[in-house]
Design a protein that fits this description.
heterodimer; A: 111 residues; mainly beta; 6-stranded mixed beta sheet; 5-stranded antiparallel beta sheet; 11 strands; B: 114 residues; 3-stranded antiparallel beta sheet; 12 strands; globular
Chain lengths: 111, 114
């Protein structure tokens, strides 16, 4: 079983739609959580950190459920420029000091 | 603006060659990482380093080695390049774990081994 699992998509949505991505992680020792965005043929870039209380950044809302080992990202009012691959990322602070990436969920926002 | 710089954007090398991929960061970060990214497999950790002259194996270290002689520079070495090492290689740096900080990535090196 992969340490971080995501639905690869693609999610094809019209402009203005609300879309949600989910991610599960297997290691309960995971301490920090992130969503990264990766455009085609570009490097991943940090979109937002994910906190236990949930957090929002403009049209983006991230949620963490530690009991279920589940992370979500909600995008409201989708824009064409949101088209990208969204990577769910977890970090363990004990043992392995490195980020583990999911394979990504591809979003295509259509006019 | 903080930066992670990878020396080459595209490289073509022959099977059996020794290949050096260089990465430099200007953020005074302790931690540096090398990943490779392949379609359907996502990013996989090759090696990482949390201090000068320190290194740890990631998930797929076979066929690779690393060098960190200075804090700002982390080199990935392919001792004898093979065609299955054709990939996108991404370097990243970060502050220590637990700080809640993510990674900053370089723009990647697309290596083709022929």
């Amino acid at each position: 079983r992969k340490e971080v699992e995501q639905d690869p998509g693609p999610f094809n949505v019209p402009e203005g739609a609300t879309v949600a991505f989910n991610c599960t992680y297997s290691n309960s020792a995971s301490q920090s959580f992130f969503w990264y965005r990766q455009d085609c043929r570009k490097e991943p870039k940090l979109l937002m950190s994910v906190y236990s209380s949930g957090n929002e950044d403009g049209r983006f809302t991230a949620q963490l459920n530690r009991a279920s080992q589940y992370i979500s990202l909600l995008i409201r009012d989708s824009k064409l420029s949101d088209s990208a691959t969204y990577l769910c990322v977890v970090e363990r602070d004990t043992g392995r000091r490195a980020l583990t990436f999911g394979s990504g969920t591809r979003l295509q926002v259509q006019p | 603006d903080v930066k992670v710089t990878q020396s080459s954007r595209y490289l073509v090398k022959r099977t059996g060659e020794k290949v050096f991929l260089e990465c430099v960061q200007d953020m005074d970060h302790e931690n540096m990482f090398w990943y490779r990214q392949d379609p359907g497999l996502g990013l996989r950790l090759i090696y990482f380093s949390y201090d000068v002259k320190m290194k740890e194996k990631g998930d797929i270290p076979e066929g690779y080695s690393v060098s960190r002689e200075k804090k700002e520079r982390f080199s990935l070495i392919l001792e004898s390049a093979s065609t299955n090492q054709t990939s996108m290689y991404l370097c990243a740096s970060s502050r220590p774990p637990g700080t809640g900080a993510g990674y900053t990535f370089g723009s990647g090196t697309r290596l083709t081994v022929v």
